[in-house]
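re: that complex we talked abt at group meeting.

here r the seqs, copy pasted straight from the sheet so there may be weird spacing, ignore it
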Amino acid sequence: MNLKAVFNQLAVYPEKCNNCLECEKVCSRIKTGKESRISSRIKTIKGLKEAYYGPVVCLQCNDPDCLNICPSGAIHKDPKTGVVLVDEKRCIKCLLCTLACAYSGIFYSKEENKIIKCDLCGGDPECVKACKPGAIKYLRNAEIYREWAEKEDLFSPGLSACMGCNSELIIRFSLRILGKNTILATPPGCIPGFGAVGYSDTTGAKVPVFHPLLTNTASMLAGIKRYYKRIGRDVNVVAFAGDGGTADVGFQSLSGAVERGENIIYICVDNEGYMNTGIQRSGTTPFGAWTTTTPVGKIKRGKNREGKNLPMIMIMHGAPYVATASTAFLDDYARKLKKAMSIKDGLAYIHLLSPCPTGWRFPPEKTIEVSRRAVETNFFPLWEYERGKLRFTYPIDNPRPVEEYLKMVGKYSHLGSDQIRKIKKIIEERIELLKRIGA
Amino acid sequence: MEKKRYVIIGTGPAGISAAKLLAKIDPESNITLIGKESYLPYSPTILPYFISGKIEEKDIFLLKRNELKDYNINLILGNGVSSVYPKEEKVFLEDGTSISYDRLIIANGGRPIIPDIKGLKDSKPLVLRTLEDAKILKQKAKTSKKAIVLGGGLIGMQVSQALSEMGISVWVIEMMDQVLPGYFDKQSSSMIQKVYESHRVKILISSTIDEVEYKKGEYSVSIKGGKKVYGQLFIVATGVKPNIDPFKGSGIELDKGILVDSSMRTNIPNIFAAGDIVQADGFWKEGKVNQPILIHAVDQGRIAAQNAFGEEISYAGNISMNLFHFFGNEAISIGMTKTDSKDEYYIHRIYNPKKKKYIKFVFDEKGLVGIMGINVDLDPGILLQLIRQRISISKDKKEFIKKPLEFGRKLMCQNWR
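got the structure back, here u go
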């Protein structure tokens, strides 16, 4: 019934397909017991002059045309899994479904004398496992989006972030996961700046939002949390602080809170500088980046120091849970945020990258792409650390060259090859360090 | 805001698909679906399969009582529409009650044509349009050995197949010089005819009936030219015509059927129509055509629903198409398949008598305009899109002809997946 429902699904990456036909072989073997191209539910495109369009497979449409046309009501869409299934008992083999489907997802098989289609192998598709080049993937992140879509948006419309900024996405998405049993603190920075604390005594948030000083976010939240604990209520006490409010000005109170084991969730929305006050450098501004205080001219070429590796510092401080996250991988972030909510004996820290179109100099529609590329190049690896164990949540082997990320962002446009070499070295060292902790 | 009141006349495929889609896109609305028959909604396409026993009565309904609540559809059955008053925005039912609407979708379907043949009407021939018709036919078929089917169109051929599968010998009488003249050329229809003839179905083409006599449970049919055929069953399958009687004089513009624009809207802005009752745009700009087939009914019902809701979606136009499965064989015809004009079109045929395969391609200067095949592996849905979206295949015709299945899939990947 729900046209907006999201389900786990097969994704095809045609550029990776080498037409090895393994998917067809395994599919027909699983479904019929023998290998045959005709009875495979997944189809490769073979024998053409230009090859490689990747396998063709049922899209498990949300409003399937095969279902809509079926005169015997034999086709239905499972409301839980989203899989479109044919009921053999009711099917009259009129073949009209094959005329209605524009995607070659449903066929009549003479061999089996029935209508056949992909059923996602009940949730564990064999073709995915058989596809060595990785041209077919099974995306399992639907549940989180479905859950997210069903929850109430805890901010009213009309937040006024810069065009293309992902902070509005971050705050709306996070609050849907955190739920109403939450108290926020947003120290000076872009998040209160775009209206999260409201104007003239009014706020757009449907949960309490405090606006602490830059210096005392963590200590203020520690007090709030302790008060609620005393009166017997378990609430999520959450900071959304910028990198200035976390790594620089707010650091002493954060450091103290981690050391004391205060049970708060601290989310650093890192846009690598003081972006709402005029794009000045901060502790987390990466090496080589242009800001108004690390200018590019005849002598200076952007920041000449490495950015502060704050998530690593949090590990060293002894926080029970530390993770990095990106809005290009929201399902990953949602899992990490839920994990953070489950921590009851100390501070959970999440470092979220927030590429800033205004301060980093890139087109506003590219924010998510920049976020993704930062992860894919290992510039901003995704991982989580829990009580001594570190695990990468996005593969770090075979990263894309970092140049692909740097060239997307204007603040790196001046970089010389020596600076790029240095950036590569920093990335390598940081990955090595993470691997050592993980090992 | 007041709930919008949608009234849909007709419980066939167009009405069902309109009601179901409205329930999804406008869940807060008030949807009423009105059916003349007392049965729950079903698709008439199922009826030949019901007769032959491939599906039981309990499985044919497309909207069950328990689903109505989920869909929030108010269903009125056994009560046809007698008239519509667009000025008062009211529909009057046969029992004298009336229903007000904000948006009306007419999907009243068609009814069988009974040709004017001597003795035909008095002989009470059977037709196949409703479940009631099918039940009578199924009951009578149980005690019959021979049947006569007037009309070698799609319904006639499907009924013949169903009867043959029940062990009944069938005579099909077709006026034209081939069966399925609406969809298939002579070559393919003669292949289809052969298959039927090997399954107890004898087909008389280029034949018309002089007279029908019915005595003591037996029909005797005199065919022009002197031949006589006999049977215990006589079924008329000479096509359907739109059921427009209730709308005459209402102000809704009618021709053979209800005239609609590309949004399935009639001349009255809040009245839409869909399915077998309409005369909608033809895809090839040939004017308004009535083409009563299931796939159009479903498409049109959905488009009428979306436009009634307020979205602006336009119908691509009727393209002649059909697909059917007979005695283990498949036949497909989409688009302009009957043409043989080599000046206007590039036509390519492949016939393999041994494998009983046949395929005919028709291209214009841009791409595919028609394809017809018997027992060939094709993706019908992709071919339909190639024609409907006018995908360019001018340079690659030869490769396409060689591998229509694979090449079609490639074009799908490139153009609309």
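couple things i noticed - Chain B touches chain A through 51 residues (CB under 8 Å). The mean pLDDT of chain B is 95.
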